[in-house]
Design brief:
It contains 9 helices and 7 strands. The protein is α/β, with parallel strands linked by helices.
Length: about 220
């Protein structure tokens, strides 16, 4: 009986999240906002990728939601660049869900935004089952995490619309074979988009921007 109750609770939670995600999607469409779920482990470069993409999108009105267990470091970085942003601290939750995002949207000037980057909590496992209502999801992995990160976290990469190998300039120093990462990705998501970047220097961001439909 206990197991049955646990399964039903999980099913109800996921169904409720899906409903809220659809409402978020409707809200984005109503306001003409392209929203992206940016995922990756801590230190993969999510914040830097968002910052650099925002620089490239000088003609677009960009906003951000910064998701973290605690703290406002990424939020402060976004605000320093003049990006309308909301900080979401999840406490013990290792991911954002549609409910967190729906409340964050209440604090953003939606009529004044064209693009919204949602930086999820740094984790490659928990966010898998919780869509947010975004147009696409981008999963970022850094070469500093090793060349086994994709095969150790197959679900999130299998579901990603676009995957990014970041910090490729450090591959030699870290003795990481990027070819292994690419091969693992192709096995898991053979038709997916995989882009290599050095976000700090801006390398590969034009290709990423094009893949997101941002031009």
């Amino acid at each position: 009986m206990h197991k049955t109750c646990d399964v039903m609770m999980e099913k109800n939670i996921l169904e409720e999240n899906s409903k809220l995600a659809r409402k978020n999607r409707d809200l984005f469409e109503e306001h003409g906002i392209l929203a992206f779920n940016i995922l990756g482990a801590i230190g993969s470069g999510k914040t830097t990728v968002i910052e650099k993409l925002s620089e490239r999108l000088s003609d677009a009105r960009v906003g951000a939601i910064a998701g973290d267990l605690a703290g406002k470091d990424d939020y402060v970085r976004f605000k320093a660049r003049g990006i309308p942003a909301v900080a979401v601290n999840t406490g013990k939750d290792c991911h954002l869900d549609a409910h967190y995002v729906s409340h964050a949207l209440e604090e953003l000037p939606l009529d004044d935004l064209d693009i919204l980057f949602i930086e999820n909590v740094g984790n490659l496992i928990c966010p898998v089952d919780f869509p947010l209502g975004t147009a696409a999801s981008v999963v970022i992995v850094s070469v500093t995490e090793g060349d086994d990160m994709i095969r150790k976290h197959p679900l999130i990469f299998a579901q990603s619309d676009i995957s990014v190998i970041n910090k490729v300039d450090l591959a030699g120093i870290m003795e990481v074979d990027i070819g292994i990462i690419e091969s693992d990705f192709r096995k898991i998501n053979p038709h997916g988009k995989l882009i290599k970047t050095d976000a700090r220097r801006g390398d590969g961001l034009e290709e990423l921007s094009d893949a997101l439909g941002l031009g």
